[in-house]
Amino acid sequence: MNKFKKIDFGEEFHWGVSAAAFQTEGACYKDGKGQSIWDEFTTRKGKILNGETALTACDFYHRYQEDIDIVKQLNIPNFRFSISWTRILPEGTGEVNQAGIDYYNKVIDYCLQQGVEPWLTLYHWDLPYALELKGGWTNREVVNWFGEFVNICADSFGDRVKYWMVMNEPSVFTGAGYFLGIHAPGRTGLKNFIPAIHHAVLAMATGGRILKQKLLDAEIGTTFSCSHIEPHTQRHKDIAAAKRADALINRLFIEPILGLGYPDNVPALKKIKNYFQAGDEEAIKFDFDFIGLQNYTREIVQYSFFTPYIGARLVKAKDRNVPLTDMGWEVHPPSIYYIIKKYSAYSNIKKILITENGAAFPDKIEQNEVDDPKRLAYIHDMLEQVLKAKNEGCNVQGYFVWTLTDNFEWAEGYHPRFGLVHVDFDTLKRTIKNSGHWYRELLGEQ
Ligand code: BGC
To answer: Does the predicted model carry a pTM greater than 0.90?
Structure first.
């Protein structure tokens, strides 16, 4: 029994579902598409669980109509997906691949025909590999390369697309990709991480400005990954460690954009100043129409002498005797409430949307059905917390489930299943899970 109704969230609330190009499309080299850092990374030994690749993924490239039909069938009015940079610019810059533009025009037009509003993310982690060979996010030129791509997307799709998100989770693609090396392009260390951070912030603000200037009626946002953080104990050292983790996980990208500068409580971040050029203080700011928050869990943080640069470690959920998802993340619905409250406290955030939230649990398909009560309860309980924050006055205006179909979960391959729709990766058959039917009923309420 639901503890809320759709209407409790208000008439204007944006209900949706999110996905990303690399995780779903497949057809990695089709119709002139160039290689991205993820195409390359997935060929390296030992990087992806079970050596899986995204060469076919969900085959969304060929099955987009079927999947958009499902979005419609589930009564979901908004579909967020990303544009693959290398379909449009195979080398990242220079020659445009018309077939890539034609493809996204077909997807956008099909959404609109079906009465589904397309929401575009411009960068969901798939940097052109040709640009990575020139330094990728560590090369300041990336700001211009990205601007070129944003301009083309605005010119090609801006007549029909109203909602735009410049980036998906810069803290993850810089942290996992340029510091820890567990995501593409697999670089490590501060010498890569620090310039990547600053260039990503510059590119995010630049992308926002280009869209704003070209698309007068568009709503322009960007999305951040965020986790509610608590100290392991009330000891001074744990509290300070939790504050440093919070700076890296939750504040690092939003605060420069809002004009507050980079957080100053993490000594390693001081090096960012070395990458500043004249005018950057202004250039890193942009007044987004909305901020997309993507929350999955909370983190418990402990002081750690042995963790370089940050002096803090996450106490793993599996060691805390709490309910877990298949990603090993704690199921903790109040985390989304605290996150909304936290970001609402920034006076210059105009509007918040939850642009991703969802959970991976093992699914079994039996007689054409997938009974997934844990995912259903997870989404229900998270929504209850979103509503609580909204009722307390937070300007939260949307909720998008991650994700439509089970898909390629980056370094984890196909094992974690986040979809409202089950995909059999041998036959590519789609089966709506019970959580999907539940979402359909919720959204179908009049
Ligand atoms: C990303 C998605 C990812 C999801 C679950 C987010 O960090 O935007 O691409 O699949 O979380 O890990």
So the answer is: yes
